[in-house]
């Protein structure tokens, strides 16, 4: 069974703080993804990585950066959190078209 | 410009009846389609998929139909059960976009199955 874990289920941060969201997968998948989910907008891709140290921007990369130093771990960084980054953040991994998701992190920026 | 659209934000169905969730797409390069189910406070879980070379795929109570000429797919759940109440996301991928590894998601439809 594929397992994708995320470091926190709920997080509350202040405006301007640096925020780290971590994701770990245990299936040796090449691809890892970070999405945010907002009501009515579905899942929007922030960044994805197809190999260690490789990354590509998704549809909404502004205000975010990522890091993939090890194959199993993919981190999302909010350099200076803003209130419009309050959202559900979902990590996923895949080796083919089907993606497996973690439980999500509900981030609130106040 | 949304390439994958789910025009019904919500759907309410009686237990035991059929649920039909719809999805439209605009990109003719999409060749693989997936449905995900999401409960509150959980990540989406894969439900069923279909390749563009098929027009139907069935897995137990779940059937996905693809109409390529209309750029439309639908998910049928028969019979619907209260445990099916969740948000359903339609997703699509194209081989031309990072070897098909990228998914484009619709906005989701919230299904409520009433006992």
What does this structure look like?
The complex is a heterodimer of chains A (about 110) and B (about 120). Chain A is mostly beta strands and about 110 residues long. Helix content of chain A is about 0%, strand content about 60%. Chain A has a single domain, classed as Immunoglobulins (Immunoglobulin-like, Sandwich), CATH 2.60.40. In chain A, the strands form two sheets. In chain A, strands 2, 4, 5, 6, 9, 10 and 11 form a seven-stranded mixed beta sheet that branches. In chain A, strand 4 (about 30-40) and strand 5 form a beta hairpin. Chain B is an all-beta fold. Helix content of chain B is about 0%, strand content about 50%. Chain B is built from no helices and eleven strands. Chain B has strands spanning about 5, 10-15, 20-25, 30-40, 45-50, 55-60, 60-65, 70-75, 85-95, 105, 110-115. In chain B, strands 2, 4, 5, 9, 10 and 11 form a six-stranded mixed beta sheet that branches. A five-stranded antiparallel beta sheet of chain B has the order 1-3-8-7-6, with no helix packed on it. In chain B, a hairpin with a 2-residue loop joins strand 6 and strand 7. Classes of the chains: A mainly beta (about 110), B mainly beta (about 120). The interface between A and B is medium-sized, with 26 and 25 residues.
Features:
heterodimer; A: 110 residues; mainly beta; Immunoglobulin-like; seven-stranded mixed β-sheet; four-stranded antiparallel β-sheet; 11 strands; 0% helix; globular; B: 115 residues; six-stranded mixed β-sheet; five-stranded antiparallel β-sheet; 52% strand
